[in-house]
Amino acid sequence: KKLVSTSKGMTFAQTSPFFAIRNAHMAKKLNTVKKLMKQKNFTAFGELIEAEALEMHAIMITSSPSLIYWSEGTLKLMKLVKQWRQEGLPVYFTINTGQDIHLLVESLHVSTLEEKLKHIPDVKKVFVNKPGSGSYITEQHLF
Question: Model's pTM, two decimal places?
Answer without folding.
Answer: 0.82
